[in-house]
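Explain this one:

_____
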Amino acid sequence: MSLFPPRDPQAFEFTDILYEKSGWVARITLNRPQAYNAYSTAALQELAAAFQDASWDDRVAVVVFTGAGPRAFCTGGDVKEYQENYTQRPRDYWKYMCCFKQYIESITNCAKPVVARLNGMAVGGGNESQLACDLAVMGEHAFLAQVGTSVGSVACGGSTQWLPLHVGDRRARDVLFLNQRYQAYTSLGLGLVSAVVPTVKGPDGRFCTRLTNGRTYLADWNTDPWENPFESRATPEQIAKATTGRDGYSVDLSQLDAVVDDVCDQIVHKFFECTRYTKAQVNFWKDLAWHATAGHARDWLAIHYTSLEPYEGMTAFVEKRKADYVGLRRRAAAGGSSEFLWGPYARTCPRCGAAGLPAEFEHCGKCGAELTAASAPAAASTAAGEQPAG
């Protein structure tokens, strides 16, 4: 009797993910469509448990990882959770990053190939999640993007490590610095995904994209780079209408599922121990980049969560406004504090003696006494007329 008996997926009683196993395939679905499948702290723990179970189950040959619904594969961490919890308790963000690190490693260390079924956008940590997978099949309506430098974070949960391996150094910097969206066929051309499948249907019920030579999807193994594989192709306008359900357009994932099933079937019909060790060998550069930087990233991000950039970026996201990027630059350029919302902890109350009061406070937070200019070093204050960016 094995010391690692297979478990019934229902026994886990997951709440944020769906988990099923049948026909040599384990399917793990991030089930938070109301949050565009952003992962919560609880979801990370559930995902890691599911991937480990699938890794050890000899009845599983391949794992399919996807998101619920047609809009999003995964949009990374739940920014509302970040803003409500981790900007308030940055030490807990270190613990959160332990959960995230365990989750990512549960994918890369999984004994079975993991196929990302990109049913919608993969943004931020969602793109990092699909980069952690071995193969990725993408619906044409989806896109990939990184957003770290736009929301007060750094994409060092996989993208800074692995994008240079996938697309080269210069293009990786394009993705990480500029935070542009990369549409499906562009992502295929860059080597970010394995295949792209038509998913946009028009009012006539037909797929807007039709491919030549009887193909139902595009991949390196079925397409000559010198040919035009399109009879017709969904336009950006048609994709936008389909993802919002306007004017009779819709997203149909049936062909995506057929291609994912075909990829899984190809993996099932290979020797499993040879496949497992092939993954271990191919992972060398990914593992090297990851393990050299992930622990450092966890600690730096936890420290950075005490500063103004994540406060402003994530508060702006929650409030649905544009972050005041230039305001922070102006504060720093004027000699003020771009690290603290109300300046560094520089003042002392002349009445009650409370110390460590923010430099821009005009009254003591403990006794309410007015703070005089003499209670803070001149260099601690921002320039006259400057307002906090938050």
